[in-house]
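thought: fold this chain, then report.
action: predict
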Amino acid sequence: MEYITTTHLRTKTSQLVNSLKKGNSVSLIHRSKIVGIIEPAKNPPKTFDAAKFKQLVKSLNLPQTTYAQREKRYRAHLMKKYGKGLS
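observation:
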């Protein structure tokens, strides 16, 4: 296990990131005591798939709206939520 001090967090961030990318965990030291462990993420984030998203939107069968219709609905929502004091 590797170690990094709180003062080195600012100067050695690239080394910390490289270590985490390799899958290593790093102990965080503050005033000669281990205060925590920095570990790499367990599950990598999912990538956005535009084709699946488009298919999902099609399956929802949402009505087509114009910009004016969206603006009108948005203004009505703001009036309901905040009242007339909005300009």
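thought: worth noting. The chain has two domains: 2-38, 50-82.
final: tokens above.
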